[in-house]
Each structure stands twice: as structure tokens, then as C-alpha cells.
């Protein structure tokens, strides 16, 4: 018997031609295609000129748990099950978590066909630091929960990516201004890879004004991390400690600045040390 497996396939965000060669092969050869929307996967296959030879079943948030047992049985029987969402990578704010974890717990093979992701695509075009980032899924719907969630990002130093409904984007950005301040940098990415793709960059206040009259399309928001601000008094104390141990003031200032995120320039710290001595 051929060993079964679960394949996780990333699908195009908007342009069918962004589909990988491996995804095209998998669509045409998988025994079962577990799709978030069966209609959309058929439209994709038609655009790619692929005939879906396998059985197509729906797997979305409301029915995923009930679908898992039968799909595990298919894999145990030797079937290749291809999991796809409407766009991007399954499980990233899309169905698939229950199926993947069930396969892992059952020690069934799980493999991934990498490809498009709205998260990394938005991060790439936002023009904000991308060396460290976090993904927050969809912003909470209700204002009280959304403001609590935003407060949790107030001290986040990493760039943050999240999704938002176009209907709630204006409210979300206004809440972000209230909680995070008007000057935090961000980018709103709309309809990524599609015909009407748009990336609007600016401060939260500027973006809130831009979105006030309404926005259409799929939305990804990229929020800059907070820039830490070091306490000058503690830095002066650290410099004086190093000087007391035998280091020159200039060298001590350079060492403290290099080791401290959000520190002032070496000249500014040097001047602060001199002022502290009267």
C-alpha cells in the first residue's frame, strides 16, 4: 500500500500565475482536495488548466472538526490529501490547524508546498523593519476588545502584521491612534498581488484620515514596532560605574550606547555625564 500523507498547499493571493509548479502537480494528482471553498479551488484549477482528478471536500472553520476523522482514514488508507485555503497558506488565519495537529498526533506524514502568504508579502512592501516581526491574525471585532489588544502592542518592539475587515479598518485605525498615539508608523496593504493593489504608508493619524471614507478589498496592516527610549539617568549611572572601574569617560559612553537599545548618541550621553558632575 502506498503511504498516505497530508499536503499543505499555499495558493495564490490574486494572480493564478503565482501558483507554484508543485501546487499545480498536486492539484492534478491528489486523491482528496480539502478546500476552504470548493468553488474557488475549482476556479483556480480551471485558470491553471488543471483537471482535479481527486475528490473535493469542503473544510472550513465551522465543519473542520467533523471532517478530520474521515480525512485521517483516507490518509491511513494511502491517500494524498491536499489542504488548501481560499488564498495564501492554510492555518495562517485560515482553516487547517485541527487537521494538521490530528495528523501529527496520529504520526501521519505532513508536508508543505510553500508559496504565497499575505503576511510576508505585506511585510515585504510595507517599508518597515522586517528583521523581527510578529503576526496577530485578525484584529478583534468589538471596540473594547480591540483597544485592549492594541494596548498589548504598545510596548511591542517588533513590526506587527495583522488582518482587518475593510468595513472595520477606519474604526481600527482610529482606535490605534487613541491607544498607540498618532505618530506610530504603519502601512495598509490592500488587494495584494491583484489588479487594484495599493499600499498606503504613513502615520496612524494619516492612515486613519485616509480610511475614514471607507475602503474596499482584502486588507493587511503592518504596524511599526515601538522605538525604545532609554532612561538617561540610568545610563549616566552606568557610565560613572565604568569610569569608577578605570575606564575613560569617552570609552565608557561608547560602550553604554552600543549596548543599550534606544540610547542617545555618544556625544549626547557624554554631555549628560559632564552636566551631572556640575
TrEMBL record:
Instruction: List the record's Gene Ontology CC terms alphabetically.
Output: cytoplasm
Which CDD domains has this protein been placed in?
RsmI
Q: Reaction catalysed by this chain?
A: cytidine(1402) in 16S rRNA + S-adenosyl-L-methionine = 2'-O-methylcytidine(1402) in 16S rRNA + S-adenosyl-L-homocysteine + H(+)
What the entry lists under Pfam families is as follows: TP_methylase (PF00590)
Q: What class of enzyme is it?
A: transferase
MF-aspect GO terms = rRNA (cytosine-2'-O-)-methyltransferase activity
The record's EC number reads 2.1.1.198
Q: Where in the cell is it found?
A: Cytoplasm
Write out the entry's keywords from A to Z. Cytoplasm, Methyltransferase, rRNA processing, S-adenosyl-L-methionine, Transferase
Predominant localisation class: cytoplasm
Show the NCBIfam families listed in the entry. Answer: 16S rRNA (cytidine(1402)-2'-O)-methyltransferase
Say what the protein does. Answer: Catalyzes the 2'-O-methylation of the ribose of cytidine 1402 (C1402) in 16S rRNA.
Q: Which PANTHER family match?
A: RIBOSOMAL RNA SMALL SUBUNIT METHYLTRANSFERASE I
Protein name, per record: Ribosomal RNA small subunit methyltransferase I
Organism listed in the record: Mycolicibacterium poriferae
Amino acid at each position: 500500500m502506498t503511504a498516505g500523507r497530508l499536503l499543505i498547499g499555499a495558493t495564490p493571493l490574486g494572480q493564478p500565475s503565482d501558483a507554484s509548479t508543485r501546487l499545480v502537480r498536486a492539484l492534478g494528482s491528489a486523491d482528496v482536495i480539502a478546500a476552504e471553498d470548493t468553488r474557488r479551488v475549482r476556479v483556480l484549477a480551471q485558470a491553471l488548466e488543471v483537471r482535479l482528478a481527486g475528490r473535493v471536500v469542503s473544510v472550513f472553520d465551522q465543519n473542520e472538526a467533523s471532517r478530520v476523522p474521515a480525512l485521517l482514514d483516507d490518509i491511513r488508507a494511502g491517500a494524498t490529501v491536499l489542504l488548501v485555503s481560499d488564498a495564501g497558506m492554510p492555518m495562517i488565519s485560515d482553516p487547517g490547524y485541527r487537521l494538521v495537529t490530528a495528523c501529527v498526533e496520529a504520526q501521519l506524514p505532513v508536508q508543505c508546498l510553500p508559496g504565497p502568504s499575505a503576511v510576508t508579502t505585506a511585510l515585504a512592501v510595507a517599508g518597515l523593519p522586517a528583521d523581527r516581526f510578529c503576526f496577530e491574525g485578525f484584529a478583534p471585532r468589538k471596540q473594547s476588545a480591540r483597544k485592549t489588544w492594541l494596548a498589548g502592542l504598545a510596548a511591542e518592539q517588533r513590526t506587527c502584521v495583522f488582518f482587518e475587515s475593510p468595513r472595520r479598518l477606519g474604526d481600527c485605525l482610529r482606535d490605534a491612534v487613541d491607544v498607540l498615539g498618532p505618530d506610530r508608523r504603519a502601512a495598509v496593504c490592500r488587494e495584494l498581488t491583484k489588479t487594484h493593489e495599493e499600499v498606503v504608508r504613513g502615520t496612524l493619524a494619516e492612515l486613519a484620515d485616509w480610511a475614514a471614507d471607507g475602503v474596499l478589498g482584502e486588507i493587511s496592516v503592518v504596524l511599526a514596532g515601538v522605538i525604545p527610549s532609554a532612561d538617561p539617568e540610568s545610563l549616566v549611572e552606568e557610565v560613572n560605574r565604568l569610569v569608577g572601574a578605570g575606564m575613560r569617560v569617552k570609552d565608557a559612553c561608547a560602550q553604554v550606547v552600543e549596548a543599550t537599545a534606544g540610547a542617545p548618541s555618544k556625544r549626547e550621553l557624554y554631555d549628560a555625564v559632564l552636566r551631572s558632575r556640575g
